[in-house]
Amino acid sequence: MLLASCGGGNEASGLGPVAGATPPVAPAPAPAPGVVDAARSCGLASFQADLMAQINQARQSGRVCGGQSMPPVVALAWNDPLFSGAAKHAEDMAVNNYFSHTSLDGRTLGQRVTAEAYNWRAVGENIAAGHSSVSAVMQGWLTSEGHCRNIMNSNFRDVGVACVNAQGAQYSRYWVMKLGAR
Fold first, then answer.
1. What span, in angstroms and rounded, lies between the C-alpha atoms of 25 and 36?
2. What is the dihedral of CA 70, 65, 68, 17, to 10 degrees?
3. How far apart are CA 165 and CA 168, in angstroms?
4. Distance CA 53, CA 86 (A)
5. Is the dihedral of CA 14, 54, 41, 147 positive or negative?
6. What pLDDT band is residue 2 in, cutting at 50, 70 and 90?
7. Counting beta carbons within 10 angstroms of the beta carbon of residue 29, is it exposed (0 to 12), middle (13 to 18) or buried (19 or more)?
8. Distance between CA atoms of 130 and 134, rounded to whole angstroms?
């Protein structure tokens, strides 16, 4: 199983937009509010509710991330544009059998989030591959310093997470968590 984190403020670290981060791409249409379809949630029952409960329990309890104590922070809200961006990146990795924060076409986290019409000032991304459940991927992210720091980052207010099954790819499932603040 693999884990990788990106961001923690913006693509360069810290707050504020990264120069040149906005691509000349028209925003994708927003998904219907509150729709988390089976293809983008690995068919897992209670996908969104389980994720939000585990993410916000960690944030409200505080954590130790890589030896650094992270105090409790406000709960995150589910965000459909971040979910859509997470789902598209997870689908791309599954279909094209790769694992990276950079899309094969060269797009970055910030560019993908901007394409979803999420006007961010801070953005982060956690990715994982192979985990079989919400609890397994959350445990992996929370025990990894960079992922834990993203989840516990007090600047973030919104989150969207997707999981895509990947037949014929190196890993059985690809997970993407996008965190942001406007």
1. 24
2. -70
3. 10
4. 19
5. positive
6. low
7. exposed
8. 11
pLDDT in tens, 52-75: 999 999 999 999 999 999 999 999
User: Rounded to whole angstroms, how far apart are CA atoms 71 and 127?
Assistant: 23
How is residue 173 written in tokens? 């499932």
Two tokens, residue 158: 């919104």
- Whole-model pTM: value is 0.84
Does residue 84 sit in helix, strand or coil? Answer: helix
8 A C-beta contact, residue 139 and residue 124: no
- The residue count of the chain comes to 182
Number of alpha carbons in the 13 Å side-chain half-sphere of residue 90: 31
Residue type at position 132? S
Residue the block writes with tokens 């060269």: 106
Fill in the amino acid letter for 45.
A
